[in-house]
Amino acid sequence: MRKVAVIGVGQTRFSGPQDKTGVELFAESSLDAITLSNLTPKDIQALFLGNVLGDFSEGQGMVQAFAADNIGAFNIPANKYDGACASSSMALRDAFTWVATGVYDIVLAGGVERAATMGTPLATRTFAMFSDSRYEYPCGITFPGVFALLAHLYAKKYDIPLEKLKEQMAAVSVQSYRHGLHNPKAHLRKEVTMEKVLSSFMISTPIQLHDACPFSDGAAAVILADEETARKLTDKPVFITGTGQASSGPLSSQQDSLPRLKAREISAKMAYDMAGLTPADIDICELHDCFSIASLIAAEGMGFFEFGQSGQAWLDGQADIGGKIAINPSGGLKSKGHPIGATGAAQVYELVKQLREEVEPERQVDGARNVMTDTLGGDGGTICNLILQRGW
Amino acid sequence: MRKVAVIGVGQTRFSGPQDKTGVELFAESSLDAITLSNLTPKDIQALFLGNVLGDFSEGQGMVQAFAADNIGAFNIPANKYDGACASSSMALRDAFTWVATGVYDIVLAGGVERAATMGTPLATRTFAMFSDSRYEYPCGITFPGVFALLAHLYAKKYDIPLEKLKEQMAAVSVQSYRHGLHNPKAHLRKEVTMEKVLSSFMISTPIQLHDACPFSDGAAAVILADEETARKLTDKPVFITGTGQASSGPLSSQQDSLPRLKAREISAKMAYDMAGLTPADIDICELHDCFSIASLIAAEGMGFFEFGQSGQAWLDGQADIGGKIAINPSGGLKSKGHPIGATGAAQVYELVKQLREEVEPERQVDGARNVMTDTLGGDGGTICNLILQRGW
Question: Domains along chain A?
């Protein structure tokens, strides 16, 4: 297997409803990535795209074919992946394999979504279809409810009073908003205090408004190349050294492990083993904070903190820049936003910019070498992790 | 790259609306494939699934995660692919690469759809979203209209009177129905005469009812393994020796080549070059006859007949068993049926059964060694071709 590097990245600003189509949004991010890679669209040999709700949000299925054609990457093989919120991570993992094995030298991967265009109520209802359609959402549960259940299980399992857990969750949101304020590509840029989080309206006890991420419109794109090609095109290649992925069935089939998500622990281990790293080696992690309780569960599942301890770690600044590990310096899904199929690729965008030390000084993590992504689709149905390392 | 073999296949009967969910249908086909491969579900290392309309037809997104869990292949990486009607071919091409490159030894690929459950009017409307959402279906065109336009272009370009073309197209349908009559897994099993096709009601001039395939419910599954593993598990491995895939944008961007589909010609060449074969080497082809005009265009695009000549070839029996090449001995999409995301995998099911000489005697092609699939998604947006060869 050849070494595979990210040589260029692009991202639109994440936002509320857009006039641009998904094809146009993806063009914006991918042409940026292609230009940054010193390439032109005709150099792209294949496209790997995450997109989940395109048929619902704008009536466009198979968007990858039109996206490739639109940027002038004519007639290339173009795949679309659906793993709910983990879709573009899945696309990236696949793209990695096609390059690592020598079939392609230069490929484009990424994701696009117009989730905000649907409006939150419709998007929430539609997106519930990514839980089990037999036994879960027909009972009326949507994802805020799923994560509220996980929060209750978490509080009970680790014997944390619910009021204390709410405070821990609020610390996650406050930190994310603080970083997103300095991210010009973020959807929600505002300062939010602990008090504001705790007094925001209740969505699904104990999850409050500011514990939840928004649905966003946006796109992100990543150019991957084999090492030899990469070294010719950039002096700052970022190597993908570990990839992991695992699936789960309905929550009922996960009950022996909940609130721990077994799929994440399997996926993360796969990525660590492949990269030859341990959690202690990771300097920055962009993880899937769709709800702040999801951040606590994720950080523990990837081994950054002991089980039941991550909320306190957030309160203590150990999950922040300068702490044990810098988590979501982009602002995360909470502030940067969550255009579902684009989220995994946007995590890679942030981490590559971080390693290149090209982000705003307020949220730059200095000297980072090893970084990691985490995306969670549905209620654990798909989890993907990627590990990237500075190549210079 | 290692050689990769198909060691087992499974398919549900294709049918009208089913009570079974997509997860249940896929279980039926995949457990058959696993059993035929002398494996158990815990041997499966990853799942690659095609499914297109699952969220519309039964409210189930990310069906692959639930499908893997349901058969007992717990926590494996599970990808879902959308390339419209080419989805499971895309999934198979990807699965092939993961095995060829040594990451996995044994994987499950396939597809599932409940297109019939939606009913033809809703499925036709919904599926139109797989054409261009900016300039095509908002004008009111659905796929029967797209293929009717191609038929007119075809007649004009090759100077074939429309009445003659209708007769040629009817010959495609008559042949498909004749083979499907002997396929116990086919959706529409009945004898249809040339007169019946030509007197069936007009859908979109010149396309009549019996020129069009049905929407079906169904699933198909394929087990892939590396050569060493395959030889231990079966004495009849069928090797995948060529894969091709290409994309196109809207019809407007394809106008220089229409009615020829450039993406197919690129994809087929990719597959031939990889396998080291030419069209003359192919004994059987399962091709994408969503409409009978599509069969004529496909057979020419893959090089089986001269451009403008394939209709006559069908009339002369040259596309039938005993002719130049046996096309769609399964009954094709026309008679076997078209559960969109499952169609590519079902083509592989048929071809593996043909190579093993395990199909009904009326439609068995004797002594075949090299076979090929062809699937077309949308109006040329995605085209995939696979070449398989007898390995004993």
Answer: 4-119+215-239 (3.40.47.10), 142-213+241-390 (3.40.47.10)
